[in-house]
């Protein structure tokens, strides 16, 4: 079986199976992206989470939360109010931890080139910890990940270690992060639409020389509607963390 | 210039440049790995941080910390004691945030195949958020990243929002995470040594058919010293987060 046929078989099998997540369905804020990707022959999604605020009850004396074992005291994909969190915190027996987990998405890609295009979309939408995995049989997956989390221990052996005022303060921050996360998802969707449109134009023309270069030539021909998105999306893939002066970095020459 | 020559030129240029990080040198706990990688013709490191506890003073009303703009009130690559943190917290004018940032490493790789091998080493050492970036000119970088962080807002407009007891509790957790991080670095080093050894054996033999498959055939021939490490390191690259029941997941058939 050739690679394309094999990819189609994987996709059909994957999309026909039941959603095995606790929730059992794709999160509302991720649906548009998931549907858009699955409508393309070169992609299919294998997992997604739109972003959520979680309160986990870790095992007693277990600082390392094992998601499978721990109890979820609260989970919401919407902004969270203090009262709900306080009620959930009262149920903690172990070491409760509040987490904000941003958007995460795994997309299987037909070829490395498809993963590269999607990776550029992810990076330029603010998902700087995204990266490609290439398995030993050539299975190519792009993971879309953000740096934009929060992980705050709140109780120890069932005892709350902070004040209600702090919980309120913290939820404000978590809710702001959720808002910013939503903006990035919207940006990802716009950038993705734009990249797919560019691809369609490219593919309808002659041989592809460089999946990234064609954009500049096309820019002036495209509708003004895409202008802002184009400018936002058109940065090149870069070495993340390279602009953090705290990381030991060697800067590359500009001409590579 | 062919790809190998170009890679050698990049490597020479990169390694001859000054370390532009605030610290100006490679962190002690990352030195062995950095040296081992840079001694291989197929790799060179472009940035690294062994892991650190940070106290950042974010801008007033700025929940999103911009690393370049914010002030570092404290940074340590060793376990941190409460007294040092309290002194640093007193200097905060804005929204101070305590972070534990685990080991991070960027490695430029000669070929995708080299990045795949290093990626497997990273995943199997516990760095599950690792991923490959392939730039438009073929520049291939593996980012080694962990899921194992901590991000805790502690003060607001210069006012401490938690008790000293909580700071102590939090530092215990941060220090435990640093300990676990160190174990993962050691595991990464062992797995890397093992993978490089296996590569050398493979390359000295006939044509390479599969960079991963050869291991099983070799396993029985290798020294008992490597046995445990082999078992630890021999898992396949997997779709991270796929074991988290909270993420919308479709499970793949076993035979792909």
TrEMBL record, chains A, B:
Pathway: tRNA modification; wybutosine-tRNA(Phe) biosynthesis. The keyword Disulfide bond does not apply. Keywords: Methyltransferase, S-adenosyl-L-methionine, Transferase, tRNA processing. It catalyses: 4-demethyl-7-[(3S)-3-amino-3-carboxypropyl]wyosine(37) in tRNA(Phe) + S-adenosyl-L-methionine = 7-[(3S)-3-amino-3-carboxypropyl]wyosine(37) in tRNA(Phe) + S-adenosyl-L-homocysteine + H(+). One of its GO terms (biological process) is methylation. Its EC number is 2.1.1.282. Probable S-adenosyl-L-methionine-dependent methyltransferase that acts as a component of the wybutosine biosynthesis pathway. Wybutosine is a hyper modified guanosine with a tricyclic base found at the 3'-position adjacent to the anticodon of eukaryotic phenylalanine tRNA. This is tRNA wybutosine-synthesizing protein 3 homolog. It comes from Oryctolagus cuniculus (Rabbit). The lineage of its organism: Eukaryota, Metazoa, Chordata, Craniata, Vertebrata.
């Amino acid at each position: 079986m050739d690679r394309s046929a094999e990819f189609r078989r994987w996709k059909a099998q994957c999309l026909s199976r039941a959603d095995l997540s606790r929730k059992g369905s794709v999160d509302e804020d991720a649906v548009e992206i998931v549907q858009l990707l699955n409508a393309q022959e070169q992609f299919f999604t294998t997992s997604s989470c739109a972003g959520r605020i979680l309160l986990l009850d870790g095992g007693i004396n277990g600082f390392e939360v094992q998601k499978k074992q721990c109890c979820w005291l609260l989970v919401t994909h919407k902004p969270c109010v203090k009262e709900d969190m306080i009620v959930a915190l009262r149920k903690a027996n172990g070491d409760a931890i509040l987490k904000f987990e941003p958007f995460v998405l795994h997309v299987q890609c037909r070829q490395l080139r498809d993963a590269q295009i999607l990776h550029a979309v992810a990076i330029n939408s603010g998902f700087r910890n995204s990266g490609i995995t290439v398995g030993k049989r050539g299975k190519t997956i792009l993971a879309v990940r953000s740096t934009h989390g929060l992980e705050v221990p709140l109780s120890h052996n069932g005892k709350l270690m902070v004040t209600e005022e702090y919980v309120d303060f913290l939820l404000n921050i978590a809710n702001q992060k959720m808002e910013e996360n939503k903006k990035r998802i919207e940006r990802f969707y716009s950038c993705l639409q734009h990249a797919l449109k560019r691809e369609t134009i490219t593919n309808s023309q002659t041989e592809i020389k460089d999946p990234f270069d064609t954009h500049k030539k096309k820019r002036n021909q495209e509708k003004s509607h895409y202008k802002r998105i184009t400018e936002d999306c058109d940065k090149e893939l870069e070495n993340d963390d390279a602009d953090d002066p705290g990381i030991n970095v060697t800067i590359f020459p500009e001409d590579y």
